[in-house]
């Protein structure tokens, strides 16, 4: 009985719509608005053409890079939060959480305002540049060349910056959850027994945080892999990720069956990643009962 | 995180909860991202008879500042307007059934497409007396013979919007956008696959209609080579990119650039000498509209001379409404941006819906260009 409501929710709002899209992926367009479910595998065959595989690979690369950068940036921060005094800890975690309370679209537009050619970063650089130019002039070296704004927006770098910014909390929170349970006496023992700080980090902290690293990476990688808005708004001419292709198949190309097949390939990839993670954490819990 | 619930850690479980909330938030965020426009009409489901409401699905920056309020004052009908970004979004929203819109604004090709798909209601001309205000040229159309399903709203031409101080002379050829490194990194193209392919065909000396299949590989090669010089494919927000200095040349519609020119006198617009693509946006009533009576009233109101002039004053697109045009100031009527001269228009053509397969071919071509 207690299971009834969530089960109903899951079936009506998750399984049923997904089943429809899944069925579409075996269909064909019949005229402009009808889809006939012919059981064809043609959509999947087409989705596995090199063109789309390359886009999948590129999406995975961008998502992987995002995950790596989030880990590199998030790990020291999570450690700092763990060892911070109680009061400060709450504030630091609040800092991570705060962006979540703003709509993704607004955050992305804010990032555009920061990165664009007449944006905050280039404005700051231009100010420094003109100050430097005035200085060199007063020293008798003549003015510097005209300031050329950096192209920070509409390229793949902008997409990665945007994705890291959006997904950092997904990495920091699980890392913090793992690190907070860490037995401090192990670190003291390691330092007492002659290991340096680097060794203690590498051989004590990182392995103990491994479950956090794994779940944080997964929580970052999966949404980053399917990200749509960020490459659409921050990306350049070649920054299309798989979700952008799916959107275009559903809208511009009006080919729902093919869009559905692409969506499900993305979904299968996600399921495989989750299954691998479950497998890995299952093995670990067996090793350390 | 799944194992983050310690036996004593109450704060930690609070944090885990926050994390879950965060995941939920981002999910809703990405959903909102899929359709940035406002939800269709919240009250639409309850619409039974002809209550004093109307759900209008329109392009952004495409109505007069006070038009909706004026209509409410005149008729008592409250208009609920939501926005779409392109015809594909409009089509995708209505494809699985009308979610409650009464009046929509598809372009010529999509009027044809939606008529073919049986998605539009015939318009009762007896309820649109203001149709007589329309310039006779626009009273019939090949995409809707006899104007049975669509009423003319605006027409528009694609061209190059540019920043005068950053461009040498007038960039009056598609070459600058499609086939030249001269303005490398300073170009934004419209992300509409069909429009891009057609304009490239036009640049290569063909009609925008019935593009021969053997020309497509050439267009693809040209765009792949040009991509290195293109900063972005925009979503019909090229005028903003031009205004904030992100690029110096954009492929855009004349009306959007005319709006930008009001804000920045350094911006201008040209229809390249090879000729261009024309579009006509139309007012239509989708099948299943909950308020068809109000929809007719609203369309008739928009075709009114004064109301039409008020709209043109804001959106600065060419109007097919002769009576409204007569009320407009001279600077609008004689603007070469809004109303390109007849000899330029003679080089322009309307596109045509040539079937789903052709659309798919264009889409695949652009996907390959962008993936390369």
Question: How would you describe this structure to a colleague?
Answer:
- The complex is a heterodimer of chains A (289) and B (372).
- With 289 residues, chain A is mainly alpha-helical.
- Chain A is built from 13 helices and two strands.
- Chain A has a two-stranded antiparallel sheet with strand order 1-2.
- In chain A, a hairpin with a 3-residue loop joins β1 (28-30) and β2 (34-36).
- Chain A is flat, with a radius of gyration of 24 Å.
- Chain A starts with a helix and ends with a helix.
- With 372 residues, chain B is α/β, with parallel strands linked by helices.
- Chain B has two domains: 42-150 and 284-338, Periplasmic binding protein-like II (D-Maltodextrin-Binding Protein, domain 2); 157-277 and 349-371, 3-Layer(aba) Sandwich (D-Maltodextrin-Binding Protein, domain 2), CATH 3.40.190.10.
- In chain B, strands 4, 5, 6, 7, 8, 9 and 10 form a seven-stranded mixed beta sheet that branches. Chain B has a three-stranded parallel beta sheet with strand order 2-1-3.
- In chain B, α7 packs parallel to α15.
- Classes of the chains: A mainly alpha (289), B alpha/beta (372).
- The interface between A and B is large, with 58 and 56 residues.
């Amino acid at each position: 009985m207690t299971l009834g409501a969530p089960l109903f929710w899951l079936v009506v709002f998750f399984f049923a719509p997904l089943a429809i899209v899944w069925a579409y992926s075996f269909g064909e367009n019949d005229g402009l608005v009808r889809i006939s479910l012919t059981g064809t595998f043609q959509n999947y065959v087409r989705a596995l053409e090199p063109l789309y595989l390359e886009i999948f690979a590129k999406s995975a690369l961008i998502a992987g890079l995002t995950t790596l950068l989030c880990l590199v940036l998030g790990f020291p921060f999570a450690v700092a939060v763990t060892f911070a005094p109680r009061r400060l800890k709450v504030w630091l975690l609040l800092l991570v959480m705060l962006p979540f309370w703003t709509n993704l679209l607004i955050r992305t537009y804010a990032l555009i305002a920061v990165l664009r050619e007449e944006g905050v970063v280039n404005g700051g650089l231009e100010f420094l540049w003109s100050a430097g130019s005035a200085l060199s002039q007063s020293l008798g070296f003549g003015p510097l060349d005209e300031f050329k704004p950096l192209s920070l927006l509409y390229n793949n770098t902008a997409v990665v910056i945007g994705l890291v910014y959006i997904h950092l909390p997904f990495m920091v929170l699980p890392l913090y959850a793992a690190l907070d349970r860490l037995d401090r006496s192990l670190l003291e023992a390691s330092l007492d027994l002659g290991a340096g700080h680097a060794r203690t980090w590498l051989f004590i902290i990182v392995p103990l945080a491994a479950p956090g690293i794994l779940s944080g990476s997964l929580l970052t990688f999966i949404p980053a892999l399917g990200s749509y808005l960020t490459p659409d708004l921050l990306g350049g001419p070649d920054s299309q990720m798989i979700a952008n292709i799916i959107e275009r198949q559903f809208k511009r190309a009006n080919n729902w069956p093919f869009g559905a097949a692409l969506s499900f390939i993305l979904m299968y990839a996600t399921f495989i990643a989750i299954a691998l993670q479950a497998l890995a954490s299952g093995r670990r819990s067996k090793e350390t009962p | 995180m799944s194992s983050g619930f310690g036996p004593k850690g109450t704060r930690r479980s609070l944090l885990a909860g926050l994390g879950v909330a965060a995941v939920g938030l981002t999910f809703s965020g990405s959903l909102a991202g899929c359709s940035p426009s406002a939800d269709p009409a919240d009250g639409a489901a309850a619409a039974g008879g002809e209550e004093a409401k109307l759900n209008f699905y329109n392009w952004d920056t495409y109505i007069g500042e006070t038009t909706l309020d004026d209509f409410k004052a005149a008729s008592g009908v409250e208009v609920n307007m939501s926005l779409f970004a392109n015809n594909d979004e409009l089509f995708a929203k209505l494809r699985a059934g009308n979610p409650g819109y009464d009046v929509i604004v598809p372009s010529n090709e999509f009027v044809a497409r939606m008529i073919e798909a049986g998605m539009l209601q015939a318009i009762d001309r007896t309820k649109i007396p203001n149709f007589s205000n329309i310039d006779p040229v626009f009273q019939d159309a090949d995409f809707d013979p006899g104007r049975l399903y669509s009423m003319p709203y605006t027409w528009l031409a694609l061209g190059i919007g540019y920043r005068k101080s950053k461009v040498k002379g007038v960039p009056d050829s598609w070459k600058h956008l499609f086939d030249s490194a001269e303005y490398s990194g300073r170009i934004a193209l419209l992300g509409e696959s069909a429009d891009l392919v057609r304009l490239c065909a036009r640049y290569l000396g063909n009609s925008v209609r019935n593009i021969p299949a053997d020309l497509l590989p050439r267009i693809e090669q040209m765009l792949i080579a040009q991509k290195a010089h293109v900063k972005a494919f925009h979503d019909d927000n090229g005028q903003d990119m031009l205004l904030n200095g992100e690029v110096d040349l954009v492929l855009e519609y004349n009306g959007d650039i005319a709006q930008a020119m009001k804000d920045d006198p350094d911006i201008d617009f040209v229809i390249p000498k090879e000729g261009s693509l024309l579009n006509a946006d139309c007012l239509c009533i989708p099948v299943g509209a909950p308020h068809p009576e109000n929809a007719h009233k609203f369309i008739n109101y928009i075709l009114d001379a004064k109301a039409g002039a008020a709209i043109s004053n804001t959106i600065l697109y060419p109007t097919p409404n002769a009576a409204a045009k007569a009320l407009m100031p001279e600077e609008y009527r004689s603007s070469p941006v809004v109303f390109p001269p007849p000899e330029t228009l003679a080089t322009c053509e309307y596109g045509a819906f040539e079937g789903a397969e052709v659309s798919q071919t264009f889409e695949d071509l652009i996907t390959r260009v962008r993936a390369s």
